[in-house]
Amino acid sequence: MSLKFKSMAALALSAAMMLSIAACGTTDAADSGSSSNSTAGYDVSSIQKDDELAKLITEGATVKDGELSSGMELSYAPAEFYAEDGKTPVGYDVDMTKAIAQVLGLKPKIVSAMFDTIIPSIGTKYDLGITAMTITKERMDSVDFVSYYRAGSTWAVQKGNPKKLDTSDMCGAKIAVQTGTVQEDEANEIAKGCKAGDKAEVLSYKRQAEAATAVATGKADAFYADSPVAGYAIAQTDGLEALGDVEGVAKQGIAIEKGNEKLDEAVQKAVQKLMDDGTYMKILKHWGVESGALDKAEINPTDLS
């Protein structure tokens, strides 16, 4: 996809990576509010509450205190990351959370979390997990999903591909990935298939920004991430480039407590409403990621591609 963003100068890759790492730390942190900056999100303030959908929340969807909380891994630009102030969450997942909350008459609450801790915390720490999460059958054993986006995976290397890597044979390479992701699983499978003496080394990082930084600084040979994320990182710097084509396009979903049918329905209908009235596409276009748009939001879809 061709990614053009409004904040090319403001989010240089190295600054974004270092800022995310410094701001996130290792503990959950609540959204501290909005601020004015060049990475400002799409304005959802004009979205009207849908009284019928809001009733689903009051009828037992378990949302507490009028807040809709969402766990996010906030170093995953352009889906979710910190603005230049180091504390304001921005990105298309952040905007989607705010838009869904507006439709349901709730106050959005963005909570920073490590990616691999989000699913276990759905229904306790957070109502939702909206964090560029690929829907898999294994994950659906633990949570419900509402589909809202489609993305693939992209390899990225230092510009010029100094190690002369080929995506058809990554044996011998140091591969940086984020812990708990589909890409980590795939990289481990690649490593298992390598011959002794030519093993791929999988370097797993808690934050996606750390994985990208490892390649930019030469600690790793390539990183593997969701296509919008890799594309955004490449767009922000002259130091990285994509390697090969986008692979394994699959649906991403909003994670919801397993069996919470009222909240499933409320979120699915809210997302569909945003798709139908054009707000959803405006959010994606604001971040330059409209190529992954869906036209139908589904609860636990059977077609994951």
Succession of helices and strands: HEHEEEEHEHEEEHEHEHEHH
Work out the number of β strands.
Answer: 12
Strand proportion: 25-35%
Radius of gyration computed on alpha carbons: 19 Å
Structural class from helices and strands?
A: alpha/beta
Counting DSSP H or I runs of 4 or more residues, the number of helices is 9
Q: What proportion of the residues is helical, as a percent range?
A: 25-40%
State mean pLDDT (0 to 100 scale).
Answer: 86
Low-confidence stretches: 1-38
Say what oligomer this is. single chain
Which of globular, elongated, flat, extended, rod-shaped describes the shape?
A: globular
- How is the main sheet built? 9 strands, mixed
Task: Characterize the structure shown.
The chain has 305 residues and is an alpha/beta fold. The protein is built from 9 helices and 12 strands. The strands form 2 sheets. A 9-stranded mixed beta sheet has the order 1-6-2-7-12-8-11-9-10, with helices on both faces. Strands 3-4-5 form a 3-stranded antiparallel beta sheet. The model is unreliable at 1-38 (pLDDT under 50).
